[in-house]
Amino acid sequence: MTPILQLKGITKRFPGVLANDHIDLDLRKGEILALLGENGAGKTTLMNILYGLYQPDEGEILIEGEKVTIDSPTDAIKTGIGMVHQHFMLIPVFTVTENVMLGEETIKYGDFLDRKKAAKRIMDISEKYNLQVAPNDYIRDLPVGVQQRVEIIKLLYRDAEILIFDEPTAVLTPQEADELFSIMRSLSDQGNSIIFITHKLREVLDISDRIMVIRRGAVVGETTPDQADKNSLAAMMVGRDVNLEVEKTDKEPGDLVFSVKNLIVADKFQNIVVDNASLDVHAGEIVGIAGVQGNGQTELVEAITGLRKSAEGKITLLSQDITKASPRQITELGSAHVPEDRQADGLVLPFPVAENLVLCTYYKEPFSKGVILQYKTILDHAEKLIEDFDIRTPSAMTPVSSLSGGNQQKVIIARELSRPIDFLVASQPTRGLDVGSIEYIHKRIVQKRDEGCAVLLVSPELDEIMELSDRIVVMYRGQIIADLPNKEITKEQVGLMMAGVLPEEALAEGDQHAVEPAL
Amino acid sequence: MDKKQEKQKDAGKILIEELNQDEKESATHKRSFWNVITIPLLAILSGIIIGAILIAATSTSVYAAFGQSFGKGITTAFSEIGSAYASLFTGSIGDPVRIFSALFSGDKEQIYKAINPFLESLVQATPYIFAGLAVALAFRAGLFNIGVEGQLFIGAACATFVGYAVKGLPVYIHMPLAFIAGGLGGALWGFIPGFLKATTGGHEVINTIMMNYIAFRLTEWLLSGPMTRPGSGGMPISPLIEESAQIPQFFPSPIRFHLGFFFALGFAWLIWWLLFKTKWGLNMRTVGTNPRAAKYAGLSVAKTTMIGMAISGGLAGLAGAIQILAVNRSMALGLSSGYGFDSIALALIGNNHPVGVVLASILFGTLRNGATRMMVVSRIPIDIVDVLQAIILMLVAAPAIIRTIYRLKEPKEEETTVFVSGWGGGQ
C-alpha cells in the first residue's frame, strides 16, 4: 500500500544552519507517527515545509504517490494537510461555528452566512469523533482543551486527512491531555493520519504507532513504542545517554526556612486568587506546588517574592517578616527566584549575557564601586559562570536574546544559584526546554537542596513535581487542597486533585486502581 | 530624472554590497556597527535623491525649459539641482575655493569669513545636541519626552532671569549659575510629568505635550510682564543678560561660534558615561528595556521614571540656556525654531546613542544653516530642507522602506529599539 504521505530527501538550509538534511518520511493511512526531537532539531522546519510556509531546497513531497508542490497553508489544506498549532488561531468573541467557517464560509442567498448548515456539519463532525463541541458557544467561554478541539474541527471541516499536531499538550492539564489522546486515537481509527510533534517522551510512548527521532536536522532513528523506552528515546534524541531519573537521596529536612500563614492575595479586579494559603519549606527540602496553570500559583509566587502585595496573612523568611518587604530586601536576605516567564521577567533580552548575569547584584561590590560599574569584574564573573553552568554562547557580550531558550534559562539559573542563598523559588524552571537542559537544571536544583537550601518548586508539569519534590502541595482555585510527602501519594492522585477532585476522594480513587510507580 | 535616480540607486547597491562583503569577514562587533549606521546613511542618501526630484519639480525655469525641448529641460533640471545643492554645501560647510584663497592670502579676517559657514553650522547644532540628548536619555529609560520644546523654553527663561537679574558676580560664577538655572528649570518641567506617570500612571506623552502649552503661555506672560525689557513698549522680550553671564564667543562678530558647543560635546560624553558606565545608567536602561525584569531585579520603576524625566528635562533646559547665554543674549518668543520637536527625530536617527545624537545634530545644524544660503542664492524655498528632513526621518523610522529599496536583508536578530517598548512598556 502506498503511504498517504511521503517526504523524500527534504533538505532546507538557512544561513549557517542545515535545518533539514535529506529527511525521508512515510506516513501510512490511519497511523499516528510521533516526530520526536529536541528544540531546534528541525521538527518545526520540516512541518512548516509540509504546511507550505517554507519551500524545501531539495527533495519532494508525495501525497498518495503523487508529487505535489505546497506553496502556502491554503495549498496544504487543499491537499488534505492540516495543522493544529501550539498557539490557537481562534477569535475569542466569535462562536465556534463562526470560527470554523472563517475563510471557508458557507453561504446562502448570495452573500448571507448559512450558520445553521455549518453548525449542523460541526455537530456531525463532533459526534463522529466524540469531540463534544457545541457550535454556538463563544470561544472565550471555553476551556483550553475544548478550544483545541475547535482547532481540530476547523481542519476536519476542510476535509483534512493528514493532521499535524505541534506540541499539542503544552497547554493542557494531564486529564485534558488524556482526552486529546483518545480523540487522536478515534481520528486515526476512522482513517485519518496523524503526525504528532513533541519532545515529551511519555506521550510518545502512550499514543504513537511509530516514532521517528530527529537530531540536528537529520533522522537518527525509527522505532515503535514496544521496542523503546524513555531512556532509549532520550538517548537517541540527545545523542548521548541521559539520566532521566533524578538522582536524589533521602534527606531529613532541617530547620524551618520559609513559611506562609493564611495568605490571601487579590488580583487587580479584586478577585481572591490565593485563598488562605499556608505552607512551610525547610532547609534541604524541595516542596513542589502542583496545579494546573492559573490556579493562583503565579500570584502566590509573586507575593512571596515581593512583586505583588498580599491582602492578608504573613510571610516569613529566616524568621524575618517579609510580608511587606520589597523584592530587593527579600533578595538580600538570601533568597533567589527563577521566574515563570523567563523572557518577560527574568532577562533583559537586548542586554548582553554578562549584564543579565548580574541583574540582581550589579549595584553592589564588587560589580560597582561607587556609582561606576566594574565591567572587568562583571565580565570575569560572566566568563566563570558561562564555564561553570555550561552556557552555550558565542561570548559574554552576546545579547541574551540570541541564545536558545535552554541557554537563556541557564543564564537565569546561573545567576540565581551562584549566589549564596538559603531559599530558592523556582517557577516552571524547565518550561519549554529540551531533555538535555531539563536534566541539567533538575540536577542543579537537587544539588542546591542537598547543600541545605530550601526550595519551593512550582510547575504544571506533573512529572517534574513528582521527580523532584520531597513534599507535594496541590493548589486548586487559589486554595491549597493537599500537602503530603511525595512517598504517600501517586501521580494519578495528584492529577485528580489538580482537576479539583477532593483529596479524600482522590486518595480513595487512587488506591482502587493498580497504581503505577511515581515516575 | 529617473536616470539619475537609477544611477544613485546603483551607487547605493554597490555600497551595500561592499558593506555586506565587509560583514562576512569582519568581527561581530563591527557587523553590528554597520547594522546600526546603514539605515540612517541610506536614509540620508535617499532623502537627498528625493529632495533633488522635488527641487526640479518645483522649479518654474525647469518647466519653461521643458517647454522648449526635452533635452534642455533635463539640462536645466540638473543645473537647478546642482546649484541648489552647491549653495547648500557652501552655505553650511563653506566654499572650498574661498577657503583656499583665504588660507593662501593669510588674512585672518578672510579666513574667519571663509570658514564661518561651517562654524555657524556647529552653532546651529549646539542646541540640537542638548535637546537630542534629552530625548535619547528619556528613550533609554523607556519614556517618550515630547515636552523638550516646553522644557527648553522654561530653561531659557530661568537662564535669562539669572542672567540679567543677578548682578555683580564674576564670570566664572555668574555664567555657570545661569547655565545651571536653565538646567534646573527644565528639570522641574520634566519632573512634573515624570512624577505624574510614576504616581498616577498618567501617560507622559500626553502630559509632556500639555506641559508644552503651559510653558509657551507662561514664558509669553513672563516676557511681556514681569521679565519684560524696560522701554520695550510691551514687546515680549527680556532685558539683555549681564556680560558676566555670557558664554564667550571665540571670534569677532558676526562669527557666533561659542564655547557652548564644547559644553554640548562634554554633556554628550557625560550622558554616555552615565548611561553605559554607571549603575544608575544600567538601572535606567533596564527599566527602559524591560520594566518587568527591572521590578523582578528589585529596581523601583517609579523612581527611575521620575529621575529619568527630570534629567531629560534638565538637558532640554540646557538647550534653551545655551541659546540665551551664548547666542541670543536676551530672550524673545522666537527663541526656538522647533529644536524640541526636531530633537525627537535626532534621537531616532542617532539610535538613542550620544555619539549618534551628536552626529545627527551636526547633520541637522548643517542642513538648517545651508538652507538659508540655498534660499538666498538659488531661490529654493527653505522649506525644501524641512521636506528633506521629513523624508530622512520617515525612512529611518520605517527601516522596512529602506530595506525594500536597497534589497537589504532583515537583520537576523530583531533589534529591539527602545522606541518599541516605550509606548506600551513602562507603566
List keywords for this structure.
heterodimer; A: 519 residues; alpha/beta; Rossmann fold; 2 domains; six-stranded mixed β-sheet; 33% helix; 26% strand; B: 427 residues; mainly alpha; 18 helices; disordered C terminus
Explain this structure:
- The complex is a heterodimer of chains A (about 525) and B (about 425).
- By secondary structure, chain A is α/β, with parallel strands linked by helices.
- Chain A folds into two domains: about 5-240, P-loop containing nucleotide triphosphate hydrolases (Rossmann fold); about 255-335 and about 420-510, P-loop containing nucleotide triphosphate hydrolases (Rossmann fold, 3-Layer(aba) Sandwich), CATH 3.40.50.
- Chain A has 18 helices and 24 strands.
- In chain A, β19 and β20 form a beta hairpin.
- In chain A, α14 (about 405-415) packs parallel to α15 and α17 packs antiparallel against α18.
- The longest helix of chain A is centred in the middle third of the chain and has 16 residues, at about 175-190.
- Chain B has a domain at about 120-355.
- Chain B is about 75% helix and about 0% strand.
- Chain B has helices spanning about 1-25, 30-55, 60-70, 70-90, 95-105, 110-140, 150-165, 170-200, 205-225, 260-275, 280-290, 290-295, 300-330, 340-350, 355-380, 385-395, 400-405, 420-425.
- Mean pLDDT of chain B is about 85; it is low at about 1-30 and about 410-425.
- Classes of the chains: A alpha/beta (about 525), B mainly alpha (about 425).
- The interface between A and B is medium-sized, with 35 and 26 residues.
Form type of chain A: globular
Low-pLDDT regions of chain A: 512-519
Could you give the count of β-strands of chain A?
A: 24
Biggest pleated sheet of chain A: 6 strands, mixed
Distance between the termini of chain A: 39 Å
- Give a short account of the largest sheet of chain B: none
Count the strands of chain B?
0
Unreliably modeled segments of chain B: 1-30, 412-427
CA radius of gyration of chain A is 25 Å
Largest interface: A-B, 35 and 26 residues
Helical residues, percent of chain A = 25-40%
Oligomer: heterodimer
Q: How confident is the prediction overall: mean pLDDT of chain B?
A: 84
Return the domain count of chain A.
2
Strand content of chain B: under 5%
Coarse morphology of chain B: globular
